[in-house]
Structure formats: structure tokens, C-alpha cells
Amino acid sequence: MTAVLVFAGDYDVAAKNDLRADFDRLAAEPNVVFDLSAVGYVDSGFLGELRRLHEHRARAGLAPLTLIVPKDSRLRRLLGRTSLANLFRIVDDLAEPA
User: Fold this and answer.
1) What is the CATH number of domain 3-66+74-91?
2) Helix 44-59 and helix 16-25, axial crossing angle in degrees, nearest 10
3) Nearest to residue 19, comparing CAs of 38, 3, 42?
4) Tens digit of pLDDT per residue, the chain (98 long)?
5) pTM for the model
6) Contacts within 8 Å (CB) and 24+ apart, 5-8
């Protein structure tokens, strides 16, 4: 079974505690997809929480997160400019083959 969490809007420092709680709820799920296609803005806190979740899952031997991020989005470009793009499976939509 795959857990899918859909994000929309902007995520900045004010959302960090809520993000951590949401991420922690899914930390032990075997397959997790974050749909980020409706996200407009993220700050370093959001990216840090993604990295923290990735590290937790890697230590537990779980599959990397799948992130749905449109190809032409600012977020996709941001992930591509950072080392984070290498940590996740990044797809355009859920229909993309594994």
C-alpha cells in the first residue's frame, strides 16, 4: 500500500512544526508519495524536513520518497539545484511508471 500526502500553497517557517508532525506520521510507511504539484513556495525549513525524513527512512531501510513535482515548476528547479534531487524519486504525476 502507498501513502499519499497532498500539499498545496506555500510552506515557510510558520509551517515547520505541522510539517514535521505530518512527515513523522509517515516515517515508517513502506511507500510514501508527496504530491507537491500545487505547492507555490517552500523555504529551507521545508527542504530540511524533507532531508530529515529521507535520512530517517534510509536508516530504517525503507524506499526513498516519491515526489510529484511538475517539470516546469520552481520547486522542480530548486530540487535540481540542490543535492536533494538525488535523494528522491521525482515524477510528473502518479501515472508515471516506477
Assistant:
1) 3.30.750.24
2) 20
3) 42
4) 889 999 999 998 888 888 889 888 888 899 999 999 999 999 999 999 999 999 999 999 999 999 999 999 999 999 999 989 999 999 998 776 55
5) 0.90
6) 5/32, 5/33, 5/34, 5/35, 6/35, 6/38, 7/34, 7/35, 7/36, 7/38, 7/39, 8/38, 8/39
